[in-house]
Structure formats: C-alpha cells, structure tokens
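ok so for the tutorial part 2 we go from a plain amino acid sequence to predicted structure tokens. step 1 is just haveing the sequence, like this:
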Amino acid sequence: MEAPQVAVVGSGADRVAEAEEVGRLLAERGCTVVTGGLGEVMAATHRGAKSAGGTTIAILPGEAHTDANPWADHVVVTGIGHARNLAVAASGHALIAVGGSYGTLAEMGFALRLGRPVVQLGKGPAVEGVVAAATPREAVERALELLVTP
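step 2 — the prediction. this is what the tokens look like for a chain of 150 residues:
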C-alpha cells in the first residue's frame, strides 16, 4: 500500500510551531506531506516532516521551482495561481487546516467536496463537516483515523 498523503493548509506566523509539529507527527506515521509549498505554515509543516525523515510535496501557484520552500522534496509548478488550491486539496487523502484565511477556506471546501476528511487545528474558518482538534497530535490522529484509503 502506498504511503498516505496528507495535505496541510493554512497561514499565520503565529501558527508556525503547531504546523511544524503536525508535519513531524505525520512523517513519524509514514505519511507524505503535501502543502502549497510557500512560507509560514507551509514551510513549517515541511520543516517538521523533514526533521522526522519524511517526504514532502509542494504544489506552487506560480511557474518557478525556486519559489518552493527549502524543505520541499518534490515541487509541482502549476502557473494557475489560487486555482492550485484544488490540486493541494485533491492530493491529500485527508486535509489538516492550521489557521488560515480565504485560501484555506477554499482548500477545506474543495477537500470536503471531494470526500476527503478535514480536520481544523484550533481556531480557523468555521466550516460544516470539519472535525475540530485542539492539539497537533489530536489533529494528526483524527486525520489518520478518517483518511480516505489510498
């Protein structure tokens, strides 16, 4: 069986420590970590995954591989701007949201529309059907319990 891919989305400099812990915990559980590949929550999640020997995928909005954070193992350039949010959501067998704003809200909606489970760590956009989690460990556990089997 292939390793489950978990998309981690969100934003906010104040959420970086939580995101890094989510990335580390996912990697420790054998998951490949997918993000939008840029900074803050995305970079922290990749950094956490790499600290535990994990594999990371960055799905970028632009056309330059060099825009990816330095912890991205595999870089997908899309050139489609915010529309890449669908690719991020679709690439995960589950999705964890850490903080965020409108882009995160879109990714959560896409994931739910695609039948992927969505877990919200702490405060973030309120979306019907999203599972709440209070800690990074709880977010990872809930996502893995609910993930769509690869």
